[in-house]
Amino acid sequence: MAGRLLLVWLLSLAGLDVQASVRQAPEPELRALLQRTVAEADSFQDRFEAQVWLLDMSTRLTPYIADPQQRLELLRLVHREASKAGLRPELVLALIHTESHFDRFAISSAGAQGMMQVMPFWKAELGRPQDNLTDNATNLRYGCTILSFYLRKENGNLSRALARYNGSLGRQAYPTKVIGFWYDFWYVKP
């Protein structure tokens, strides 16, 4: 019964028709996939937190990534890399939303690559020319580390850190867009 109440609550947060959703049990494959993902999610405080966050974010991510397994794998990576870098995972999702709309093969006109649009010169700077910036784990590690560095450099000023990340320091359009996606689409109260 507690599981059903949790599902009703999560579905209501996502804006879904709770009555219709409760009548249909989750697909067994999705349930098994979520269980495996939760078991592999090493950056969460506990299993319940992992289940709630992954289900909530997976629902929000559906318009951008149709495959449930790909969504959960990406979310686990985002949570892990953001947590390692001391960032809120939802902020990283907002940045990805802004930068690439979750297209791991995105390449900007300036040459930035992957979901977090990391510039390839970073590979040479680190002496790692073999790194593939379209690999989500690699891209997230680079992007989260870079954003975390800029956030520390700017003494916690998120707007300035985001502008540095984007190479647009002094302009507000980019930080405003990322913060807008964060608060309007991805934000979860701590």
From TrEMBL:
<dbReference type="InterPro" id="IPR008258">
    <property type="entry name" value="Transglycosylase_SLT_dom_1"/>
</dbReference>
<dbReference type="Pfam" id="PF01464">
    <property type="entry name" value="SLT"/>
</dbReference>
<protein>
    <submittedName>
        <fullName>Transglycosylase SLT domain-containing protein</fullName>
    </submittedName>
</protein>
<keyword id="KW-0732">Signal</keyword>
<feature type="domain" description="Transglycosylase SLT">
    <location>
        <begin position="78"/>
        <end position="171"/>
    </location>
</feature>
<dbReference type="InterPro" id="IPR023346">
    <property type="entry name" value="Lysozyme-like_dom_sf"/>
</dbReference>
<comment type="similarity">
    <text>Belongs to the transglycosylase Slt family.</text>
</comment>
<feature type="signal peptide">
    <location>
        <begin position="1"/>
        <end position="20"/>
    </location>
</feature>
